Amino acid sequence: MPLPVIGQRPTADGPRRRRFGRTLTARAVLVSCAVALVSVLVTVMVAVPLTVRAADRQAREALAAQATLTAQLLRPRLDRGQTADEVRIVQRLRDRDINAYLVRAGNPDRGGLPERVVQRLAAGRNVSGRGMVDGRMSLIEARALPGGSGVVLTRPVSRGLWLSIAASLWLPLLAGLSAGLVAGVLLARRLARPIRNAATAAARLRAGDRNVQVPVEPPEEAADLAYALNGLAAALATSEGRQREFLLSVSHELRTPLTAIRGYAEALADGVLPADGTRRAGQTMLGEAEHLDRLVSDLLALARLEAADFPLEPARVDLAELVRAAVEPWTSRCAAVGVPLRAELPDGPVPAYTDPGRIRQVVDGLLENALRVVPPGAPVVLATRPAPAGGGVVEVRDGGPGFTDDDLAVAFERGALHERYRGIRKVGSGLGLALAAGLVRRLGGTIAAGHAPEGGARFTVWLPPAP
Q1: Which residues pair with 138 in a beta bridge?
Q2: Quick check: pTM over 0.85?
């Protein structure tokens, strides 16, 4: 039979029914009641035997004292036969639920006493203990008197003592269960409140609200959960802010070549271009289309970079040969804008284990980034050298405006430098450095930005050695 539903709460797949038996409140209440019940039962198991033994000891001590006193009172009268004082004393004892037996010269005044008690009295020894008296288990206290006489007092053992003591504990049991119930409810509410706050905050985050602050309160586990959710909200807000800035910058970069292409296309369609301007318009449109193609390719590469199926073909590579092959085409491109390109190569090979095509893509991206900002006459340096710990290093330096220390911290974030320097100096789409950093990380290397001795920026790529 299903448990009763006391409420619902939304999940990613819709509202989920909350079962009472599975809630933290219900379980805390049940555990608290169980602990209280076990505590009371353990108390009963320990206290009842102790109480019974204490009551039994007190009864024996009281009966022993009464037997001693009775023997002293009847000692001078016992050899005279039954007297009025004797009858009065025996009656008072019976009023206290004590049976008195008088033994004269080894003969009890009535039957029912154990034979061993009579024999020990006849031998002049006292008796203290338990035994069957007149068919009932009784406490026995016998005091010997001269001439084989004596006084025997007995008191029946109460068989309901255990039950009476146990029955008297129902009130503590009820109080313990009530206290466990109250404590469980209070504890559950105290423990469940941070969890409910966290669940509410998570639902708000899922709904798109980034202004979420979970109150930090003890215990430490709940405080850690609150700190984690607050940190997640802050990280999501920062990430989404950067994504918005990135999309704005990318949309601006996409709009620029599209505007040029559209303008020339409209001019061609309207026939307003002179005959000698058609060639120039086509060249401009082709250049803008190539720029647009590179931008879209960078976006696709960035989108695929973190995918598991991103194609990589690592192999043993001589970085010196790879850099030497890149110098020739880039020398002519740099010379066309008045920028000297200098190569720094070692005498021997620089072995590394990487994908040569992807590293060439990284080198081309870093050189294009440098060529974009370097003024005519300032140098661009492409260098490689063996790494001290194995592998190789590829370095691109320039004599451009360089970076500030604050720029170095965000150099490889998508669109960060583009947003920072747009309208101030010539910048690209903000994707090249992010793509280069992602490629190097996927290849097991590291990349860092710094200050170049030529006065501009320096990008250093460390690549691992062959396994």
Answers
A1: 131, 156
A2: no
